[in-house]
Amino acid sequence: xxxxxxxxxxxxxxxxxxxxxxxxxxxxxxxxxxxxxxxxxxxxxxxxxxxxxxxxxxxxxxxxxxxxxxxxxxxxxxxxxxxxxxxxxxxxxxxxxxxxxxxxxxxxxxxxxxxxxxxxxxxxxxxxxxxxxxxxxxxxxxxxxxxxxxxxxxxxxxxxxxxxxxxxxxxxxxxxxxxxxxxxxxxxxxxxxxxxxxxxxxxxxxxxxxxxxxxxxxxxxxxxxxxxxxxxxxxxxxxxxxxxxxxxxxxxxxxxxxxxxxxxxxxxxxxxxxxxxxxxxxxxxxxxxxxxxx
Length: 294
Hints:
By secondary structure, the protein is of the alpha+beta class. It folds into two domains: 49-190, Periplasmic binding protein-like II (D-Maltodextrin-Binding Protein, domain 2), CATH 3.40.190; 200-280, Alpha-Beta Plaits. It has helices spanning 6-40, 51-65, 71-89, 104-113, 125-133, 150-160, 214-223, 252-262, and strands spanning 94-97, 119-122, 139-143, 165-170, 186-190, 200-208, 228-233, 242-249, 270-280. The chain has a five-stranded mixed sheet with strand order 2-1-3-5-4, with helices on both faces. Helix 1 crosses helix 3 (71-89) and helix 2 runs antiparallel to helix 3. The relative contact order is 0.13. The model has no long low-confidence stretch (mean pLDDT 90).
């Protein structure tokens, strides 16, 4: 292929410079609108974070940019922009559970909340709860539950009885890689009010007697017409009951009511059915397909 003429290269580079200037001008115009929103909401209380609106914005923009711009690239750019403009309205701090075995949690928190948002590392989830209760942080990012994360079994009852709820799942847009292994995830906890987006998930805590298998529980959820995304059994060293975290499609109370009816024949065996939070469904999340009865 012949090299482009020097004059053509200069013209194209000048066009890129013009577009870069236009992009910055539009960003400044956007910031001015954000500042105006902050002025209009002078008497409003609470964080300016709107996970549902942010999720629908990214869904719309990634669809608009496809296939020329990879969704993960656009999401990362817009997450930085959203974090910066949100902090113009209400500054916020994020606590992150510092687990040396799961460094991806800090990376996911930074990608979601931007380079200028202060992150405070905590050694336990309870320490993060205290920071939020004391007003020293507004959000807490923790590893998503897995079969061997015993601390989730311990902390879940406390979470149920607190004002904290799961308000996000990370990453919202997993990066495209050739690695077949699933992307380790994280959950965001906070006291934000759940608002519906165009697609949402709910995390449920389900406690049953020891004789109700995971396969039977999965069948009951399916019979209720609920889309099951993940089902994790929280292990205990000396279990007196079976404890599951089920991630399902839909918003909290509606899903809870539907499952409550489906579980009615087993009411004596159902010890707990609580909503831990509802949040936007990340891009690319599909229903659980495991048939394991482990």
